[in-house]
């Protein structure tokens, strides 16, 4: 990885419990194709003390981002009040990271890492983000971005953009950061500041909404289009098992056979 580029994920206590999302997330790095070495670049940001303590038990780089008078430890249902607070707290934290001069790959912890993603990032782009659904044109703003995976370079354009993104929370109250991004991606402000934005192909950066079709190409697999912690865990375990079966094949068979995911799943 380049200088001053980090991988960041965020977690609360519900996701760090033993045999929960965090364990599956770390396992994917260990069994992925040349991904284990990336763990040394992974910063885990904990939203509560329980998550922070659990992180310290099993990972090297942990940071406590604890908000006074707010309990982020339990499972937060999608679009609940606490969920929105947690997502916007995360977005503001990432702004601070950029202002400190660090570029980052942000990844939700319900994303499995099976291959290094760098070959599929666009050069000379400031902000690139995965999609729930991809329209086969990386420049098309009508793509449906998912804030759970993005590569953002630290520069003047991205810092201004993150400030604008956070400020837009007040313009569109009651919406999460992803919904707001879906609105502001059309804003003339992006052109004004010269931000170069691209959308990542689901063939490499897939999810349960639109899975990467073949394991020969997949870099990451996201438990999007999936509500409920238990449902996510169940289907992520299925994906982990698919990957293990794929990697157990002889090398020439892996290359020639278009191995895909097991169905049916609970999600998607």
Automatic annotation (TrEMBL):
Domain Nucleotide-diphospho-sugar transferase: 38-236
Signal peptide: none
Protein name: Pentatricopeptide repeat-containing protein
Species of origin: Solanum tuberosum
Gene it is expressed from: LOC102590650
